[in-house]
Structure formats: C-alpha cells, structure tokens
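INFO batch 0412 | record 1 of 1 | parsing
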Amino acid sequence: MPEVRRVEAFLLSREWRDADDGIDLVLWAKSADGPVRLRVPRQEAVMFVPRDAVTRAGRRVARDLTTFDGRPIDALYFRSRRAMWDERDRIREAGFETLESDVKPSDRWVMERFVTGGLAIEGPCRERSGVLYFDRGARVTAAELRPALSLLALDVETDGFGGPLLSAAIATGAEERVFVRSPARPVTHAAAIVVPDERALLVRLFAEIARIDPDVVCGWNVLEFDLALLDRRAQELGVPFAIGRGGERARVIASTTGRASIGRVPGRVVLDGIATLKSATYSFDRYTLEVVSQELLGRGKKIAAAVDPVAEIRRLHAEEPDALVDYNLEDCRLVLDVFRAADLVGFAVERARLTGLPMDRQGGSVAAFDHLYLPRVHRRGFVARDVDADVEILPSPGGHVLDSAPGLYHDVLSFDFRSLYPSIIRTFQIDPLGLAQPGADPVAGEEGATFAREGAILPALIASLHDARSAAIASENAALSRAIKILMNSFYGVLGTPGCRFFDPRLPTSITRRGHAILSRAGRFFEERGLTVIYGDTDSLFVAGGDPAAGPALAAELTARLATEVRAEHRLESFLELRFESRYERFLMPTLRNSDRGSKKRYAGAVRKAPDGARSVVVRGLEAVRRDWTPLARRVQLELLRRVFEDEPFDAWLLETARDLEAGKLDAELVYHKRKKENDVAEELVLVMTTRGLEPAAARAAPIDYGHYLEKQLAPVCDVILPFLDTSFARIAGTQTSLF
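INFO prediction complete | emitting tokens
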C-alpha cells in the first residue's frame, strides 16, 4: 500500500505529453532522501478567448478575468494540447484573438503554484529502487531550499567527428571510468574497462551512468556533440539510450532553427560548460576547454593545441591506449574542475530558484519574465496575449552616450549608476499592467505613456530582487548575486523585444529616455563643480580635473540631489544611486581610427586595486581585449599601455619587437582564430597570413607575410596611443615598415 509522505525537493526536469485520458505531467526532483518522480495525470490544456469569440470545441467556462484593455474573457479547456492548437487556428482564422495559448501545460502548472525550483510534495507514494514515486493525488506547494546536487562529467572520443566511438570517460571526483573499444595493444590503466565493440561500450557506459545516478551530467559541448552522438549511435546499434532515472530513455532534440539542441534526460539536468559559462557572463578569448581551463585552472588538455586532435586520437587508440585513457579522463577532470572553480552548478541552481526555468535552460529571459509575471497578472484579474500576437513594433532609443574628449589624462574618476535600468523601472513605476491600467493619478512616461502610481507588479519584483541581492552580497553568495544581477538587467531587454507577450514600445522608450535625462543631469552636476566629463555611456561617467579623493562624496551628493528632484517633480521615492567606482591614475580616451573625434566604448586606464595596492591596466573595447586580433597585437598594445602609464621608455622595445617579428621569432603569436561550422560540427581554424593569403598554421606552404603584421596589426594597435605622445609606430619602427 502507498504511504502518505511529505518531502521537499528541488525540481530537476519537467515534461508533458498528450495521453488518452488527458495531459500527463511528469516532474523529477531531488530531495534529501533521493530522487522524486511526480506524475500529475488527466490535466487539461487551457487558453483564453474574448467573450464574443465564436468557438466550436473545448470546455468553455466564463472567468472573472479580462484582457489588459478590459474585455471580459472565457477559458477554453482541452484534453489534449493538439486539440487546443486545432481550435486556436480555427478561432484565429475566424478573426478572433486567442490569449496565452502558447504556454506549455507543465510550465503553467508550475508557475501558477509559484514554484521556482523548490517544491513541497505531500501525498501517497511508493519507493522503488531508491526513487520516490508520487503517481496521483499529491498536493504541491512552493518551498525554499538549496539542493546538494551530484555531478558527473562525460566525454567521448571518436574515430572522426561523426563516430564510431573509440572510448568514453565519466568522472565524478570520487569515481572514474573509461570504456575503451578493443584496442590493438594491451591496456593497463587502472580506470580503463576494455569492451569488445562499440555496442558493448554503449551498454556498459549507460549502465554505469545509471549506477552512479548523478543529478547533473556536464561536459564541453556535451549536448551538440557527446550526447547527440551517443543518441545517434545508440539508435543505429539498437541500444536503448536509457540514461534517465528509473531506466527512462533520454533523447537529444536537434534544433531546426540554428539554436542550441535540447537534451531530455528524465530526472537529470544536462549542463554544457560553454553555454553555462556564457549564461553566467564569464568572458574568454575562446571557449575551448583548453583556453578556459588554462585561465581558470592553470592547466590544460593532454594533446597540444598545434596537433591534429582527430589524427592523434586515432594514433593513441591504435598505439598508446593508456595515453588515450589519460587524455579522455583528463578532459572529464578539467570539466569538473572548471564547473567547481566557476560554481556553475551553484549559478544554475540560483537562476532556477529565481526564475522558475529549468536548470539547463540557457537564455530564456522572456520565459523567465513570463514565469514571474504571468501568475501575478492572473491574481490581479487579467490575462495576457499570445506571444505571436500582432503588435505595433517601433524602435526605442538605446543607451545614451556622451561625446568623449580624447586624450591621455592623469587622475580620472569613474562613476556608475547601480543597476540603472532596474532602478528607473522601480523609481518611475514602469510596468506593463500599470501602463494598461494607469488609474486616476498616473506617473508620466514617454510617447504618451502613463503608469499606475501604486500597485505595479514589476517594480515590486525588482524591489524584492534588489533586497535579495544585497543579502547575497552580504553573505558572500557570489552565484546568487550574479544570477540576480543578470535577471534584473534582463527585464529592460525583455520589455523591448516583440517576442515578449507584454511588449509595448512605450515601455523600453520610457526607460531609456529617462536614462538619457539622468546621465545628462549627472554630467551637468559635475560641470557645475568645474569638473570635465570626458565620457559617459548609458550608466557610467568618467570625470577629470577634481580631487582624486572626492569620488565617494560626489557620488553621495548627486544621489541625494536626484532623490530631492524626483520627489519634488514626480512625488516618487528615488531608487537611483550613483556609485564611485574607480580612480584611474592614468587614463586613455582614444580617437576613432583616422579621425580626431573621440571614440565610444573604448578606453584604458591604470588603477590600484586592493588589498595590495598593485597597479593594473584596465582595458575596455580596445584591440588588446578583442578576439579578432592576433596574440601579438594584443600583447604589444597591452604592454605599450603599461609602459606609457608607468612613464617607462618604449621606443627601443617597440623597435626590437618589429625586428623580432621580421626575424621569425614571434611566429607563434601571429595566428588568427576563425570558427567554421559544417554538418552541425563546429571547427576552429588556426590561420596565418602568408604571401599567398591566409593558410592553415599547421600546414602553411608559403612564407609568412611579415609586412602584413607590421602594417595591419602592430601599427594600428600602437597608434591608438602614440599620437597623444607626439609620435607614431612608423616613426619608431620606420626602418622596419619601409622594407615592405
């Protein structure tokens, strides 16, 4: 007999499917007692229609809800989503509107219970093979918890990009296994398990994943390559791809629109290292495992970057299978260590707790906004339109950029507004529902927009997120702080995209134009005090000419001034906050190339960082931090900046660099990295410029064109700086450039 239990668990995966007796929802979660599978059978799909719409199918129920513009609506319920789609198409063809027909049944079920990660399940359940099964009759509510999730790294090696498999490695930190397909030579590695053929490799690999039973499967390009290949090879060889919990089958759904594939592994989360790093706003020159692991861990892969990896893996399998095991296993170890160093699982957990999106959902800002906003709209008595509804699309202005004053400066103070756009939303009550229902005493926006002065949903959400981030910073929870910052900053972009069901061009315009006014007001504030604003961009300003120690006091004074003005002009509380960010002892504001006009979003400066007070160079937008320039150009520009900021001589060093280039001593730094995608496989090309044009670095046939690198690489990056010192690269290294 089932026993009645109550467990708190963290949501790992959710799916829905049309069944004979309704829609089946299946949710997998992780509790302190182990995995939990919750089945919610016989559910209905629902959409809404205006009360005057003519319908022919579905169970129609009058609801005490309206559209944003006040029209009463009815709900239409269906036993399958397919039936709902068919009726939706017919209703639209008849000229009527449908509302919220695009919301997935599983998403609606979760969001309407305000579940954003944690949930409490109470009801009859059975335990089988370590899994708690709640099959029907369970009561679910939201719960606050942070799970401890187990992690397994996966990496496969193949004979060419499409297979067949040569080996497959898994690692958890506590356990390591490498399954190797019948190599010609003996294998003695302790982690190796030799199998006779590829089919046996798949069977053993899948069984081992099931035995270890991880909550999270991770890897590098793990969806597009490793899991996609395993899925395909399993189908071809007749092996069930049963790596889900409870023996359930996994699948990889390839995108037909150029987007990332989707991995469905019941009861487990799949996290790709590249996609999760990008979601967490980490930035690297390239997102290869070698580059990322070298930067984060100080070590890299066991095959040198210059070697053809496909040919080398074939050779290792044939001649040195123990070395292949080491290579395969080290890739797993690197992935595990990168995930831990960057706290990627922690970030994915916190993002799920904040947004309600699945842990493995990358991007999804619009879906996150839906998850948070839609149920709150419903509680206010409103429903929203479909995402693909026809709306007027008008451009909204971008962030305000003040003209820059190019030059090489001493003592520049930088300031920024803390979370400017979220603060504007919160201060000026910018809100989709508040725009539609402004009330009798509204707050003025832009383009004729007015917003409700009280009761707005979005400002209240931002207020709660702001408080949560402050608490996260105080408790040194970096993953939570980062996740909250990304979520808050996404709201402006969401409101500005037609892919959002709440899109109205007056929303982003009311945010950006208010931002323009605030940045201009800040500029006047500094100028009134005799200071020079040398640059301003969206939410930041750079100011020269003042007391280097006055930054914090100036920021506090302007913050108080803005609060007074907002209260007097709008009768609102201001949440705008200017912060003093840095003092640059030296600062470069460059010109546009071949122009005397100041550039935008490009600068460099020297700052002293706590706790040791060491001087470091900060670079934004210049070639030294751009991936489309060679390593040589980037290194030389960064070193020239350092020498100039430190008042060190640089003429002899630049001339020596040019001579070393011509002498072939710097060839390793002359490569261009370009990505090529063919047959859904991404390949990184390493090229070098020769006298015959670009050629592969590893198979170069013609001589290197050193004149190209002097003229197109070194000269441009140096002449960003040197004209402010009344010189140029040509003057310093003219004997070199004149040779070409």
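INFO post-check: The longest strand covers residues 3-19.
INFO record closed
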